[in-house]
Every structure is written in structure tokens, then in C-alpha cells.
Design goal:
This protein is an alpha/beta fold. It has two domains: about 1-130, Rossmann fold, CATH 3.40.50.2300; about 155-225, Arc Repressor Mutant, subunit A, CATH 1.10.10. It is about 45% helix and about 10% strand. The protein has eleven helices and eight strands. It has helices at about 5-20, 30-40, 60-70, 85-90, 110-115, 125-130, 155-165, 170-180, 180-195, 200-210, 215-220; strands at about 1-5, 25-30, 45-50, 75-80, 100, 120-125, 155, 225. The strands form two sheets. Strands 2-1-3-4-5-6 form a six-stranded parallel sheet, with helices on both faces. It has a two-stranded parallel ribbon with strand order 7-8. α3 (about 60-70) links the parallel β3 and β4 (about 75-80). α8 (about 170-180) packs across α9 (about 180-195). The N and C termini lie far apart (about 35 Å). It holds the Pfam family Response_reg. InterPro entries: CheY-like_superfamily (IPR011006), NreC/VraR/RcsB-like_REC (IPR058245), Sig_transdc_resp-reg_C-effctor (IPR016032), Sig_transdc_resp-reg_receiver (IPR001789), Tscrpt_reg_LuxR_C (IPR000792), WalR-like (IPR039420). This is LuxR family transcriptional regulator. One of its GO terms (molecular function) is DNA binding. It comes from Burkholderia diffusa.
């Protein structure tokens, strides 16, 4: 199965897969469609984008956690532009079999599908490079991490900015996606981090995991206000 919220990307992946004789059992554009298809058909491998906002079951780590719990035999390959070492490490430990960077050659896709189907793991060159350059930085490091039990009241806009940022999108990309100025998006990110008490992206990621911000779509909806 192929899943991406951009039809052109789906078409490109479809062409690469079909040319190698691999059967495509379905195509989806968000998590709602993915789950609907999985309820109706048997699927061995899911090739999906990391960031697909708007679906009932979330996207990124939230979606992968849901799929791993409810469809344990499904092999997951995620294709992404993210290069945040902390997020990538967490992704590699989340039950996802293969992680491919969209900037890497498309020739990595078919081998990744075969490896995932056989139960192995595959990371494209830029993913390996991003993880490697992260040094000793870990999302789980102790010390000056934010307190998970701290009550934080994020607005819907702040939560969406943080969620998209942790999915690997840059401020300018988030601004384009949300049809807002980069200055506004940057200010919302800074304000959210101040509320959380996160002084770095690693601390922000730590908080997100400890509070369930990235582990379930329900958790993401908790503790946020209606203000922009």
C-alpha cells in the first residue's frame, strides 16, 4: 500500500514499484484512508509519508504507534524529508522497519520493500548520515529535560506548529503549509517552547514523548486551548 497526501508523490512511487512487478493493493492520502483500507484488504508492506496532517489517526509517530498495536504483522516503510537526529532515532525505535529520505535516490525504494517484507531493516544514506551526525545527543538523556507532569496549555495553533516541526518540517515549510507568515510561525514555536520549558529541540522532543504528544492523536488533543 502507498500513502502520501501529495498525489504526484503517490504516482511516482506507484511507477517505481509497478516497474519491478510489486503488487499495489491500495493507495491512501491520510491515516483515515490507510486504516479503512487495512480493514478491507490484506497488506504486507505500507510505504507512507511521515507527515500527513488531517487524518483521524494522526500521522508520524502517532500513526505508526497505532498501526503497530492494531496491525502487528504490517511492515512499515516511511519516506520523509526530516533530518532531525532525535526524531529519526525515535522513529527507528518505533517499530518502523525502513526509513528513506526523499532526497535519496528512488532506487532505494524497491530494495527497502523487499527487506521490510522479509523482516529486515533498511535506512537510506541520508538517514544514516543524519543519525550519525547527532553524536551523543539522545532524546532520553537525563538532566535538564522538561517535566512531563507540568500542566501546559497550548493553543491549537501552537500545538500544530510544534507537531509539524517535530515531524521534520522547517519553519518556512510550516508557514507555507498553514498559510501564515514565517514570523508568526516562529513566534508560536518560541511561545510553545517557553510554555513547555524546553530550551532545545531535544528537550521539546523529550517532552512530546513523555506527555504522549506524539504517541496518540487523543493525547495531542488534550490540554490545548481554542485560541490562535
Amino acid at each position: 500500500m502507498i500513502a502520501d497526501d501529495h498525489p504526484a508523490v503517490v504516482a511516482g512511487i506507484r511507477h517505481s514499484i509497478l516497474s519491478e512487478g510489486i503488487e499495489i493493493v491500495g493507495e491512501a492520502h491520510n491515516s483515515t484512508e490507510i486504516v479503512a483500507l487495512l480493514k478491507e484488504i490484506e497488506c504486507d508492506v505500507l510505504v507512507t509519508d511521515y507527515a500527513m496532517p488531517g487524518g483521524e489517526f494522526g500521522d508520524g509517530l502517532a500513526l505508526f504507534a497505532f498501526l503497530t498495536r492494531n496491525y502487528p504483522s504490517l511492515k512499515i516503510i516511511t519516506v520523509t524529508m526530516m533530518d532531525n537526529p532525535g526524531v529519526l532515532r525515535s522513529l527507528c525505535n518505533s517499530g518502523v522497519q525502513c526509513v528513506l529520505n526523499k532526497a535519496d535516490d528512488v532506487s532505494h525504494l524497491v530494495p527497502a520493500i523487499h527487506v521490510a517484507h522479509s523482516g529486515g531493516r533498511y535506512f537510506s544514506p541520508k538517514v544514516n548520515a543524519a543519525i550519525g551526525r547527532g553524536g551523543d545527543e539522545k532524546a532520553g538523556d537525563a538532566g535538564d529535560k522538561p517535566r512531563a507532569n507540568k500542566k501546559v496549555d497550548l493553543s491549537k495553533r501552537e500545538l500544530e506548529v510544534i507537531r509539524l516541526y517535530l515531524s521534520g518540517m522547517k519553519v518556512m515549510e510550516i508557514a507555507d503549509y498553514m498559510h501564515r507568515s514565517a514570523k508568526t510561525v516562529s513566534a508560536q514555536k518560541v511561545k510553545a517552547m517557553q510554555k513547555i520549558g524546553a530550551a532545545s529541540d531535544v528537550e521539546l522532543l523529550q517532552y512530546a514523548f513523555e506527555t504522549g504528544l506524539l504517541s496518540s492523536s487523543e493525547s495531542a488533543a488534550d490540554g490545548l486551548s481554542d485560541e490562535a
